[in-house]
Write a structure and sequence with these properties.
The protein has 215 residues and is an alpha+beta fold. The protein contains ten helices and ten strands. It has a four-stranded antiparallel β-sheet, covered by helices on one side.
């Protein structure tokens, strides 16, 4: 899975000279929290986020409502955007986990996706949540079980093999190291065409595996 598979293609973009009031309206209408700022040929010039739209209270404290309105109407996107040199971007062919790692490390909510500095998409934290839902089979009916198993080779194969031997299908699976216990691995498996009782009965027979949750 790559960024190109989950990014929003042809995202809504704004021009640098647009008023921030208009940009705020666009955000509200399209229900987005990030707007790439583009120039001629859709080349990236900057990025607008909801956080960048917030005006420090200290700048407004001494103004009345009419002065505030005038102050806001005079501000343009280019006055508050993150400048191009400070925008962290990605490319369509990067693996999704690599993009997610960048977003986590940099504590940012999106990555504009570029080809030759031209905006072709945007990948956001919401897109990543959609991916997580897909990976764990969240949109499919079935039984979801969390298994705790030793962190060693062949343990996952024991679980999937036991399920396969029964003729049941696996929609999705994923795993992480057990929190505060590097010697074990927690694996989530979504199984179809089975009852909770039957699945538990089979998995309980696997030596060294513990059923943490089933639903």
């Amino acid at each position: 899975m790559f960024v190109r598979d989950y990014m929003t293609r042809h995202p809504v973009m704004v021009e640098p000279n647009m008023s921030i009031v208009e940009a705020q309206d666009i955000m509200a209408e399209t229900k987005v929290r990030h707007l790439p700022v583009a120039g001629e040929g859709k080349r990236l010039l900057g990025l607008i986020t909801r956080q960048r739209m917030r005006i420090p209270p200290t700048e407004l404290a001494s103004l009345n409502v009419w002065e505030i309105t005038r102050y806001l109407s005079n501000l343009c996107v280019k006055d508050v955007m993150v400048k191009r040199k400070n925008v962290i971007t990605t490319i369509p062919d990067i693996a999704l986990e690599e993009a997610a790692k960048v977003m986590t490390e940099e504590k940012i909510g999106c990555l504009p996706v570029l080809e030759d500095d031209i905006v072709v998409g945007i990948i956001t934290e919401i897109d990543m949540m959609t991916l997580l839902t897909d990976l764990l089979g969240g949109y499919e009916a079935g039984v979801r079980v969390t298994l705790r198993m030793p962190n060693q080779k062949g343990e996952l194969a024991k679980a999937t093999g036991a399920i396969s031997d029964q003729g049941w299908g696996i929609y999705a699976s994923g795993g992480v190291k057990t929190p505060k216990d590097p010697g074990h691995w927690d694996c989530v498996i979504k199984v179809r065409d089975v009852s909770q009782e039957d699945l538990v009965a089979v998995l309980e027979q696997i030596e060294g595996h513990e059923i943490i949750d089933v639903r």
